[in-house]
Amino acid sequence: LQESESENKLDGETASDSESKSEFGGSSPVPTSDDTPxxxxxxxxxxxxxxxxxxxxxxxxxxxxxxxxxxxxxxPMVLMTIVMCVQIKCFHExxxxxxxxxxxxxxxxxxxxxxxFLLCVNYFFYGETVTDYFFTLVQREEPLRILSKYxxxxxxxxxxxxxCMFVLSLVKKHYRLQFYMFGWTHVTLLIVVTQSHLIIHNxxxxxxxxxxxxxxVICNDIMAYMFxxxxxxxxxxxxxxxKTWEGFIGGFFSTVLFGLLLSYVMSGYRCFTxxxxxxxxTNSFTVDCEPSELFQLQEYNIPVVLQSVVGWKTVRMYPFQxxxxxxxxxxxxxxxxxxxxxxxxxxxxxxxxxxxxxxGHGGIMDRFDCQYLMATFVNVYIASFIRGPNPSKLIQxxxxxxxxxxxxxxxxxxxxxxxxxxxxxxEDA
Length: 429
Prior knowledge:
With 429 residues, this protein is mainly alpha-helical.
């Protein structure tokens, strides 16, 4: 009995957890297992389980990195499609856990309503994105213009329909459980859909804002695993017993260095640094522009303390590399807490992985738990320190106004420029 109690404590389970399980039918652990390909099983049969897992994870990691390079090469539209597919799969994995844990009650409409709410939220967010980034196209097509004008009302009406369906589905004696599942669905939507929407917004700011943060998280995950595997001795956190301080620190320094190098390489290419914009003439995405100051080499003075160490007085680097230090630092120090949060969630329901989609890695959500936290940080970072007013969007909105409104804005702007002496100097030139 004492051993059982200690195991429960290690799993983070308390007496209240046990009571809630009995109240909701005694949830059993959700079975998950790694479907390692038979070819790898035969090739690695002579290795210990520790080294076998190392090789399986390594091979699949290289395969995923290769796939990542391929979709980057295919362009922004493919990247956005992949983000949508990942979002749907992550939502499916989390909702399936809830369904498997409480399936004994056979709740009416639970899965149907969950997917309906996913559709509603995606319609709202992606409708906002289309209106924002494809404004000219939307104004050109009558059906799209109507949908854009009443987009929020339509979105709210769709959500209200789902809300009424949920109320009608309430079953006597199961009210509390159904409201738990209602909350489960909405929290999942908040975590998954909102973050994937922010990832796409980051992508429109320039592919470098999409690739560098994601690559930093991947690098930190790999290097923390490598340092922990070979040098790990000191446990880091009880939620993830295999995580060590050696891996955490080694991953941090490796990721910062990797971020600096990757940013230096990518900052020299317009296809990565230019904002992703929609060309109305060709009906396609374009990534051609004059590089901003962030992506132009500048000379920086090295602190006197470090000059004697490195032997240089100045260094030439892109300003974006300085921002990459902030991105890689977050990916290394705060990003892992997304993984710890996911570990706590899995321990609460006594499962090893969210699914068994990727051998040696678990489900898609197991690979993207840190990415979603990173997406929010990047979006907040851009809004706080990078993004300014967008002249092209202001002009697009200006052109949709009535002629009298346009004339009023023109006269106001002209008077403002004359007062500042700008318009007079331009006329003289």
